[in-house]
Amino acid sequence: MRIVIITGASSGMGREFALQLDKKLHSIDEYWLVGRNEEELAKTKKKMHTKTRNFIADFNSRKALFPLVQELNNIQPEVKMLVNCAGFGMVGYFDRISYNDNLSMIDVNCRALTSLTHDCIPFMAVNSRIINLASAGAFNPQPGFAVYCATKSYVLSFSRALRGELKDLGIYVTAVCPGPVNTPFFNKAERYGNVYAFKKLFMADQKAVVSKAIDDSIRCKEISVYGRTMRAYRVLAKVVPHRFIIELLNLMHKLKK
Ligand SMILES: NC(=O)c1ccc[n+]([C@@H]2O[C@H](COP(=O)([O-])OP(=O)(O)OC[C@H]3O[C@@H](n4cnc5c(N)ncnc54)[C@H](OP(=O)(O)O)[C@@H]3O)[C@@H](O)[C@H]2O)c1
C-alpha cells in the first residue's frame, strides 16, 4: 500500500497540499492526514477523492504521534511522500512571548517534524519524497520573530543535510521557504505583536506556493522559493552581513512604535 502523510492538514498550506496532491498523484492508495483541529481536519478529508485517514495530534505532546507510528508498524505501508507542514510562529520580542509559546514553537516546528521524519524513513523506498516547510525567515535571524526564524533555520539546515544523507537511497528532501503567504498563520501569529506592514505587501497565494513546492519536489529540488521577491531576498541574506539586517529590523521596530 502506498501512502502520503501530511501534517498541518487542518488548515492553510497543509490542507492545500492534500487537495493538490490528491489531484496530481495517481498511484496513491491512502492519504494519512494529521492535524490538531478535528473538525477542520474532517473538512479536508471530505474534499479528498482518494481514501483518507485522519489522525488527531497535538504536537505539544510527545505522545501525539504514537497512534500514527503504531499504524505504520502494523500496516507496513510504503510512504511515497511525507509533507511536514504543521507549524506556527509568534511575532514579538522573545521575553514578551510566554515561556510555553516560545517552547511550543520548538516542539511543533522542530521536534515533531524531526520525530515523524525519523519514523517514516524506514518505510520509504527509491523515488520517495520528503517536503519540509521552512520559511524565508530561515535565511537570517529576525528580532521580533527570533524563535520562529531560529526554528525555520533548523528545518532548512536539517533538510539540506538529510537530503545529502538520503540521496543515495533515492529519497529526495525539499525545504520549502516561502515569504508571507495568505493563510490563517497571521491570525495566530499576532497575539503579542504585529507583523511589519511591508511584509503583508508581499503576501503570496497559498495555491501558487504549494503548487510550486510540489513541482520542485517532483523535480528533486533542494529548496523551493516562490516568487522573485523572495528569491532576491534569499540572495540579499547571503551577501549582506546579518548584523546589518538585524540593525535595520531593530530600527524599523522602533519606528513602528
Ligand atoms: N503563512 C505564511 O506566511 C508562512 C510563511 C512561511 C512558512 N510558513 C510555514 O508553513 C506551514 C503551514 O503554515 P500555514 O501558513 O498553512 O498556517 P496555518 O493555516 O496556521 O496552518 C498551520 C497548521 O499547523 C498546525 N499546528 C499548529 N500547531 C500545532 C500543534 N500544536 N499540533 C499539531 N498541529 C499544529 C495547525 O493546526 P490547527 O489548525 O489545529 O492549529 C495547522 O494545521 C507552517 O510550518 C508555517 O510555519 C508559513
UniProtKB/TrEMBL annotation:
<comment type="function">
    <text>NADP-dependent dehydrogenase with broad substrate specificity acting on 3-hydroxy acids. Catalyzes the NADP-dependent oxidation of L-allo-threonine to L-2-amino-3-keto-butyrate, which is spontaneously decarboxylated into aminoacetone. Also acts on D-threonine, L-serine, D-serine, D-3-hydroxyisobutyrate, L-3-hydroxyisobutyrate, D-glycerate and L-glycerate. Able to catalyze the reduction of the malonic semialdehyde to 3-hydroxypropionic acid.</text>
</comment>
<keyword id="KW-0560">Oxidoreductase</keyword>
<dbReference type="Pfam" id="PF00106">
    <property type="entry name" value="adh_short"/>
</dbReference>
<comment type="similarity">
    <text>Belongs to the short-chain dehydrogenases/reductases (SDR) family.</text>
</comment>
<dbReference type="InterPro" id="IPR002347">
    <property type="entry name" value="SDR_fam"/>
</dbReference>
<protein>
    <recommendedName>
        <fullName>NADP-dependent 3-hydroxy acid dehydrogenase YdfG</fullName>
        <ecNumber>1.1.1.298</ecNumber>
        <ecNumber>1.1.1.381</ecNumber>
    </recommendedName>
</protein>
<dbReference type="InterPro" id="IPR036291">
    <property type="entry name" value="NAD(P)-bd_dom_sf"/>
</dbReference>
<dbReference type="InterPro" id="IPR020904">
    <property type="entry name" value="Sc_DH/Rdtase_CS"/>
</dbReference>
